[in-house]
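User: Could you go from structure to sequence for me? I need the amino acid at each position, not a summary. Structure tokens:
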């Protein structure tokens, strides 16, 4: 009889322990899911990591948790927003976004503008555009939007002529005059900076030039004018619900932060960036 009682007690103890484990796991999952839902998640490209992390650190003091997810390419951040894996992304300007929506039919829109930067034409071999030889090798980005931006900049610099300088999707086929018979080499946008040692001329982004330690962004042979349509955007799904206005508060902090201005001066160069919301 004592043995039976002992066995019953063991079974009861095992059952209670199992129940507590199950309840503990359920509570953990609930807390993890709650924490994940309460965390603002933003996808970025590497050049903006320090910039947005400075804002994320400030938001922590306000009780807002921010997780930054880095993407190495320019396609995945929009896929992640569309799929609901992240709340927003910060890597693209309005022309790029418009073209991405046209190509993918994603339900995306600009939540708010951030900062933008100049782009320029750079060379380590020549001190002026006039020195460029016939058949000079010119490196430009291979995505439709930034390729067009590069060709438009080359046209403004007087190196080529294109059918319509206002066409945001100008292609190589739209070149109607190329007196120096420039030879165009297309690479991934971030890789243009790395091509400066071999090419005669590159289309360069200030932040990638600085990251690659390839050139001082201020040493451009030709710079583009400020154009607010090229400001980097905070992008979300069109049906995004900004719970407790976490993203809106993050954007406001970004736009008013002195830390952000300091980091932009360091990462892009003084005078090389502009505020897209003004």
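Assistant: Here is the amino acid at each position, in order:
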């Amino acid at each position: 009889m004592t043995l039976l009682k002992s066995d019953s007690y063991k079974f009861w103890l095992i059952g209670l322990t199992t129940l507590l484990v199950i309840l503990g796991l359920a509570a953990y999952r609930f807390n993890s899911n709650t924490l994940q839902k309460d965390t603002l998640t933003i996808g970025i490209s590497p050049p903006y990591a320090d910039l947005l992390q400075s804002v994320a650190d400030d938001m922590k003091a306000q009780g807002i948790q921010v997780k930054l997810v880095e993407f190495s390419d320019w396609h995945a951040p929009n896929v992640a927003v569309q799929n609901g894996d992240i709340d927003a992304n910060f890597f693209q300007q309005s022309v790029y976004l418009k073209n991405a929506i046209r190509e993918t039919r994603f339900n995306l829109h600009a939540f708010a503008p951030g900062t933008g930067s100049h782009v320029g034409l750079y060379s380590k071999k020549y001190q002026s555009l006039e020195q460029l030889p016939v058949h000079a090798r010119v490196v430009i980005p291979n995505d439709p939007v930034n390729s067009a931006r590069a060709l438009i900049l080359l046209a403004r610099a007087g190196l080529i002529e294109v059918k319509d300088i206002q066409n945001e999707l100008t292609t190589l086929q739209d070149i109607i005059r190329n007196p120096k018979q420039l030879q165009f080499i297309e690479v991934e946008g971030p890789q243009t900076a790395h091509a400066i040692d071999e090419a005669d001329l590159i289309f360069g982004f200030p932040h990638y030039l600085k990251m690659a330690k390839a050139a001082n962004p201020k040493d451009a042979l030709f710079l583009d004018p400020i154009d607010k349509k090229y400001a980097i955007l905070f992008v979300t799904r069109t049906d995004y619900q900004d719970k407790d206005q976490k993203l809106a508060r993050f954007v406001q902090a970004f736009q008013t932060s002195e830390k952000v201005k300091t980091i932009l001066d360091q990462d892009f160069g003084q005078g090389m960036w502009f505020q897209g919301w003004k």
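One structural detail worth keeping in mind: The chain has two domains: 39-116+228-275, 120-223.
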